[in-house]
Amino acid sequence: MSVDRHGAKLGADGVQVVLGFRLVAFAGTDAIGSVLERYREVVFRLAYHIVLDAESAHDVTQDVMVRAVRSFDKLSVHPNPDHWIRCVTVRAARNFLRKAKHTRRWRADANVETLTPQSGDPVDDLAMREVLATLPVDLRTVLALAVGEQLSYAEIASATGVPVGTVASRLNAAKSAFRERWEAREA
């Protein structure tokens, strides 16, 4: 295997090899492209609700999309691909936060232009993101899945790998903590 001028590995046919698969093998595949297009927005939205930073959410989205391409054979026959992609996104976002904690100081996205308006008022949306950023990642994750993605307790339990009872208690704790912090901000 040879190496191009940027240090990337090249296959015998000169095609760049990235993360163990050849880009050319997927470039002409409409099925993979449509799957990636279908899930990119969902993955970004969920990742953003967990990491609360647009740049980081794009990194998580890219990681999930690479995993989807690598596992396309499994994903294409999975009985519930929506569930699979959400599980992978939750794990990737949580792993990102765990790694970021050790490498740099993480904070909520303060760029109003990158926010997806919920209330129509970017100032309120930024304040909401700042309050969410104070919640522990486990609470923020169940809140994002329950409120943002409208998943049932069973679906959240499956996506996070915790029992349904734990989901219920974390969701209750997340709502209480958010409410307290929101009201303290207004006082």
Count every helix, treating DSSP H or I runs of 4 or more residues as helices. 9
CATH fold-level assignment of one domain: Arc Repressor Mutant, subunit A
Low-pLDDT stretches are: 1-28, 102-119
The major sheet is characterized as: 2 strands, antiparallel
CATH class label of one domain: Mainly Alpha
How much beta, percentage-wise?
under 5%
Task: Give the overall silhouette.
Answer: globular
Into which percent range does the helicity of residues fall?
Answer: 55-70%
CATH architecture annotation of one domain: Orthogonal Bundle
Please give the number of β-strands.
Answer: 4
Mean residue pLDDT: 75
Describe this structure in words.
The protein is mainly α and 187 residues long. The protein has a domain at 116-187: Orthogonal Bundle (Arc Repressor Mutant, subunit A), CATH 1.10.10.10. The protein is 68% helix and 4% strand. The protein has 9 helices and 4 strands; from the N terminus they run ββββααααααααα. The chain has helices spanning 23-27, 30-51, 54-70, 72-77, 81-103, 122-133, 137-148, 153-160, 164-186, and strands at residues 2-3, 9-10, 17-18, 21-22. The chain has a two-stranded antiparallel ribbon. A two-stranded antiparallel sheet has the order 3-4. Strand 3 (17-18) and strand 4 (21-22) form a beta hairpin. Helix 2 (30-51) packs antiparallel against helix 3, helix 3 (54-70) packs across helix 5 (81-103) and helix 5 (81-103) packs across helix 8 (153-160). The radius of gyration is 19 Å and the shape is globular. Mean pLDDT is 75; it is low at 1-28 and 102-119.
